[in-house]
Design goal:
alpha+beta, Helicase, Ruva Protein, domain 3
């Protein structure tokens, strides 16, 4: 979105942002040609939408990194954003999962090609249900369900384990 100066017909530039109250933002734009200024105040719905989408008001000073919004959204509170390293390949998830509170860092190790804990046997019905999980997160779901089964003493992954895990993660 760009604002156009009414006085001189030039594009205005972002100048500042201030929190009006807990529900609204005040954003100021100024014309670089004549100095004319305009302020915009967001309503609570707009403020929530902008915050929820991770939009940075005022533009960026550095280029966006791949999957930056996703990494920021899943990082544990108070920890720095994970960055990709050459040994991770192109997928940032193994590095983000390692050391982030998962008791079994074998999930991240398994995704990055390193050895992980032994697998738990799966019933054929559980394997069929796993195929309903979107392909791009299936390996994470598989590892998470197995970890849950091991931690809770299940000898195999069956419908009960999958139901309990689904309930635990809120799906």
């Amino acid at each position: 979105m760009k604002f156009l100066c009414i006085k001189c017909n030039s594009f205005m530039d972002y100048e500042s942002k201030e929190q009006v109250d807990t529900l609204r933002l005040g954003i100021t734009f100024a014309c670089t040609q004549c100095g004319y200024k305009v302020a915009m105040v967001t309503n609570p719905g707009e403020t929530q939408l902008v915050s929820g989408l991770g939009v940075k008001i005022g533009g960026r000073t550095v280029p966006a990194e791949p999957m930056e919004f996703t990494r920021e959204a899943i990082k544990p509170e108070g920890q720095p954003t994970a960055t990709m390293t050459a040994d991770m390949g192109k997928c940032p998830f193994p590095g983000m999962l390692a050391g982030t509170g998962f008791k079994d860092t074998g999930i991240a190790a398994g995704l990055s090609g390193q050895d992980s804990k032994p697998t738990v046997p799966w019933t054929s019905n559980a394997e069929k249900r796993l195929q309903n999980v979107p392909a791009f997160v299936r390996s994470l779901a598989h590892a998470g369900i197995e970890q849950y089964a091991r931690e809770n003493g299940f000898a195999e992954v069956n419908d009960q384990v999958m139901d309990e895990y689904r309930e635990k993660v809120g799906m």
